[in-house]
Design brief:
This protein is α+β, with helices and mostly antiparallel strands. Helices cover about 55% and strands about 25% of the residues.
Length: about 210
């Protein structure tokens, strides 16, 4: 498969089901229509997508590759297994417990995750909040699904149970890095909209200092 950006991969996955217009893709993906239009033009130039009457069609070659990968992912057993602690904060004990149960339910609903065990640790009052933890053992079928879990659920502590040594294909690594790039890009946009420039600079300086960069 050609080297695609994270946005082009999202476009390709949407077009697997049926051809779509630019407006339909923008609504389905939730990204800037101008960015989607540029990504589509590049895909058309590479003959990965064709355009007919303002509708975009994915090439049969790319469609076949993506469908095969989807089928393999659904059949695969987890390659990576971790124990993770997800911290939850609520204004009261009931709210914290409800949030932990909702997180547990959302994780169970993910096809790319396999939840082996889950333990809700009762919230305790700390200052003005009730803080509890969801202690889970979970498996991932791909590196991309592991990246998604880390960004979406933000565990405070992670321990790798297996494998002792991991190997990934170039395509798996590419997909995971593109997923990371997408999350980081969206976080940066949010920070720029909601924080002053001086606050952002202090935040990044703090991150770099902690990482000894």
């Amino acid at each position: 498969m050609a080297l695609l950006s994270w946005l082009q991969i999202k476009i390709a996955k949407e077009l697997i089901e049926s051809p779509m217009s630019l407006q339909e893709l923008s609504k389905a993906i939730g990204e800037n229509p101008l960015d989607i239009e540029k990504a589509l033009k590049d895909m058309v130039a590479l003959k990965l997508v064709t355009e007919k009457s303002d509708m975009f069609y994915i090439s049969e070659e790319i469609k076949k590759e993506l469908l095969n990968k989807r089928e393999l992912t659904q059949q695969e057993k987890p390659k990576t297994e971790i124990q993770a602690y997800i911290e939850v904060k609520g204004l009261n004990k009931k709210a914290a417990l409800k949030q932990m149960k909702e997180i547990e339910k959302a994780i169970k609903a993910q096809n790319a995750f396999v939840l082996y065990s889950s333990n809700i640790i009762e919230p305790e009052k700390q200052g003005d909040f009730y803080i509890g933890h969801l202690d889970i053992t979970i498996g991932f079928k791909s590196l991309t699904s592991l990246v998604q879990f880390m960004y979406l659920y933000g565990p405070s502590v992670v321990e790798v149970i297996k494998p002792p040594k991991a190997e990934f294909t170039a395509f798996d690594l590419q997909e995971a890095l593109n997923q990371m790039a997408e999350f980081i890009f969206k976080y940066n946009v949010y920070l720029e909209k909601n924080l002053r420039k001086a606050d952002i600079e202090r935040f990044y300086a703090s991150l770099l200092q902690k990482q000894n960069f």
